[in-house]
Amino acid sequence: MSLGWWLVIALALGITEVLTVNLIFVNLGLAAVVAGLVALLGFGLLAQIIAFCIAALLLLVLVRPWGKAFLAKRTPNIQTNAQGLIGKNAVVLETVDVHDGRVRLDGEVWSARTQGIEIPKGMNVVVLEIDGATAIVAPAMPEQVG
Description:
Elements: H1 3-20, H2 25-40, H3 45-74, E1 89-94, E2 102-105, E3 108-113, E4 124-131, E5 134-139
Parallel strand pairs: 3-5
Antiparallel strand pairs: 1-2, 1-4, 2-3, 4-5
Helix pairs in contact: 1-2, 2-3
């Protein structure tokens, strides 16, 4: 394979990293660049693949943990996905009990349940936790509404 193909692979892996942000694909992209440099030096496909594998392994084992720790320090207390919904207010659309119900949460309709009481339609609730695709809610105190 030529340098050009390895750079195309590196670019594709870089784009994938932008979409996932998990620091795996960027390291594989860098390993593809290393393999491309080996190709540029005139080595054959086997040497290129070996270089890619060694570089990928070293980057994933040595650089990724450091990168994750660095990002964690730079973005503390940032909640992602469903965990960011905990503590938010919602409005009951269909009566919520220990088995089922529906709430409007963050502009979307969510299935919901309570930890023991029944909450009628129209009441304000607060999200205690997220269990899969179900919000566990409790009645909101007046100071929590808003």
